[in-house]
Specification:
mainly beta, 6-stranded antiparallel sheet, disordered N terminus, Deoxyuridine 5'-Triphosphate Nucleotidohydrolase, Chain A, 7-stranded antiparallel sheet
């Protein structure tokens, strides 16, 4: 069935009753409606361990690790089964995440039951994504649900638990109970703007900026979202980003002290011609050439790069909350996006401005009460560096 213009995503059940707390229409739930969902048990947690208020972001909820992790021999999807029933076939051993937590080894999948559970009405579906800070340390996460056939997608009306697969890819990490590595977004119906709507909005309210000015509409690359290119001009010394070091030490994600980045990353500098050659299967942190602006009333999501466009993958998806790159007093100012990039199989050259990922934009179901920024503990507004919060000190213990 074709989707209506200006939207995308699962359709709401037209026969389903609308909960009295949920406004009519289609869109992503902002913070005040997420708080309602928490209060009504739609997003539930143990009575003696409720979701902290700080975990409610402008258009998402930070989810928390439970008290144990299971080391897996392989990743899996449950299909028609419950997760715990399938887990019996793939579990190797169990780790205690209480207290100091446990070390997760590189390249090994682990599964953790999250503290939050869902009791979604039929109008709502969910999507999960790693938090930006999680992607920047090359930790791969994705949510699975009972009866789920796709990662990170939660069916309309789902009632049940949430389980997080965690795979550290570059560094061994220490995690513990209550740490937030991923986020949940709840959506009513089809919320995504189509390309025609995106272009029309950009002409009146810029979504991408370059050197402080709106990118001309005719220069935008649009295909079910807006493409972002790489900045490979870098700083005056030619530094364009970072590459993960081999054989790095343990990274404790529960620390409240800034970590020395030189132990984990080495700088990457451009070649003549504003290009770099990506070594196979190494993890790179780079910046977008364009600055992103997510105005109030919208949310955005970074989607993975199309692998048919080359031997390269922008590895992680991620949520952009309303207000990212937006100043309440001045309007659209833009903030560049951190890009996590990996080449596969062979060395691959990338050049300044080359598209590597795209952003999709969605309407909010209601005007947001809060916007992305320092007032809600955001770490990356106006960023000029790609390193995550553990290496800058811009974080709180166990926070997101």
């Amino acid at each position: 069935m074709p989707e209506p213009p200006g939207s995308a995503g699962p359709a709401a059940d037209p026969t389903a009753p609308t909960p009295e707390w949920l406004p009519p229409g289609e869109g992503v739930l902002p913070a005040q409606l997420l708080e309602e969902a928490l209060a009504r048990g739609v997003v539930d947690a143990p009575a003696d361990d409720p979701v902290p208020a700080a975990n409610v972001q402008p258009a998402s909820v930070d989810l928390r690790l439970g008290d144990r992790a299971v080391r897996l021999r392989c990743s899996f999807l449950p299909g028609d089964h419950e997760v715990l029933a399938k887990l019996e076939d793939y579990a190797l051993d169990e780790l205690d995440l209480r207290g100091r937590g446990a070390v997760l080894e590189r390249g090994r999948p682990y599964l953790v039951a999250l503290k939050e559970r869902l009791a979604l009405p039929a109008r709502l579906h969910g999507r999960a994504n790693p938090k930006s800070s999680t992607g920047r340390i090359d930790v791969f996460t994705r949510v699975i649900t009972d009866g789920g056939r796709r990662f990170d997608e939660i069916a309309p009306g789902y009632h049940g638990g949430l389980y997080l697969e965690i795979v550290p890819l570059s560094f061994p990490i220490r995690v513990r109970e209550d740490l937030s590595l991923n986020q949940l977004r709840l959506v009513a119906g089809r919320a995504r703007l189509d390309d025609e709507a995106l272009l029309a909005l950009h002409r009146s309210q810029p979504l991408l900026l370059r050197e402080g000015r709106a990118v001309p509409a005719e220069e935008l690359l649009v295909a079910d979202g807006l493409f972002l290119g790489l900045d490979l001009q870098g700083d005056p010394a030619g530094k364009v980003g970072y590459c993960a070091r081999d054989s790095a030490p343990l990274l404790d994600l529960g620390t409240d002290q800034a970590v020395d980045p030189d132990l984990f990353f080495e700088p990457v500098r451009r070649e003549k011609g504003d290009r770099i050659v990506l070594s196979p299967n190494r993890f790179y942190l780079l910046l977008s050439r364009e600055a992103v602006c997510v105005p109030p009333g919208l949310a955005a999501e970074m989607t993975a790069y199309d692998p048919t466009s080359g031997e390269l993958r922008s590895h992680y998806a991620g949520f952009f909350d309303p207000g990212f790159g937006w100043d309440p007093a001045r309007g659209p100012v833009g903030s560049r996006a951190a890009l996590e990039v990996r080449a596969h199989d062979v060395p691959f050259v990338v050049e300044d401005g080359q598209p590597v990922c795209k952003l999709t934009f969605e309407r909010l179901l209601a005007e947001p009460r809060a916007l992305y920024g320092s007032a809600v503990g955001s770490s990356y507004q106006g960023q000029r560096e790609t390193l995550g919060k553990w290496f800058t000190g811009a974080h709180r213990p166990l926070g997101g």
